[in-house]
Amino acid sequence: MSPFSCIVRRDLLLAFRRRSDVFNTLVFFIIVVSLFPLGVGPEPNQLRAMAPGVIWVAALLASMLALNRLFAADFADGTLEQMALSPEPLFLLVIAKVAAHWLVAGLPLVLIAPVLGIQFDMPSDAIMVMAASLVLGTPVLSLIGAVGAALTLGVRGGGVLVALLVLPLYVPVLVFGAGAVVASGAGLSAQAHLLLIGASLALSLVLSPWATAMALRISLD
Amino acid sequence: MLEAYRLECTRGDRTLFRGLSFSVAPTQLLHVAGANGAGKTSLLRILCGLLSPAHGEVRWGGQPIAATREEYAAQLLYIGHSNALKDELTALENLEIGGTLAGRRCTRDAALDALQELGVGRCAQLPVRALSQGQRRRVSLARLALGAGGAGGAGGAPGIGSENAAKLWILDEPFAALDTAAVTHLENLIARHVGAGGMAVLTTHQPLAIATVGMFRIELEYEMDARL
Question: Which ipTM score applies to this complex?
Fold first, then answer.
């Protein structure tokens, strides 16, 4: 087995044995989304209009909440040192870790979001576009978040700091992600928005693992 | 051959050591001694490449390790203070993952043999959470037996000759939390590794009873702060 698939398999196994962490993220997402109708009132038109933004912001916060789990445990028990000393390039191992993290923290959000869309009475084609934008967008959130998580490793109060570092970088994804759904609701094509999210996915896939690996080496120093 | 050239290490605003040069050749064992806080762990982390020295460099086969990180990593086995074990995984899973991560071919049988050799074969299927401190240390150290090919191991020529083995062992307090039987066993394991042409650098506060020709010792001195 290659070190890459070894890390993916290990992180999925760990997530399976610590299931409560996975459910925390998902339940947080569902609750935040469900609070809005209670706060704003049950006017269907209003709910339909704000659904894309609400679901996207909640997905953003939920994936940020899961970030502190990304490297903290490996850092504390010394596994991260072993990864840094592995003959395998560190950025590859970072991609493996982020991939596993997305499968555990991002994919469940993508799968549950259409159900929440129905709760907001979104039209079915808008729900499709939203699912597509989340499939493309949540990996970007995990990749950008990994840089923040690596930089704040071992820092006290790192949770708040990671939010300050990462949330501004999430803005483009949020704008295009929610924008895609709004556009399709207005009868326009969502293609341009989705392409832009795809572009940011490609860009962050190239830059973020490299930056994360650098940040991890600094944190270990 | 591992060479340290005029290493200087500062932590905070304190200089731990300065102008430290030495070399470790095959069949040599370096024992780094010194009081708490003298910089033993920092020196070991510098030798691994985890920490960058304030001045000087570490060379492996004449090349600075920063330039040949991946080749160097393939020859290196580092066991630090922390055991690098996951509480939720079993001893066997931990060892297999540790071996794979270090770039070694690691079959289930080889991992079981290594655990057996360190005397924790019976705990192979237990989650590490359920093990005692000493047993965890043994599981962590089983990576040494894995790297060495294992004494009774299934795979080919044991020791340093095989491509699968790490040439350089860097061990930070390997004897901590071990009982006397395990200490003797680990000493034998290290002696066998060094005797077969390997190199080892280790720190310990215990007197070392390893009968190997090439053992030498570096004593790091703790520079007292004048105000204390």
Answer: 0.86
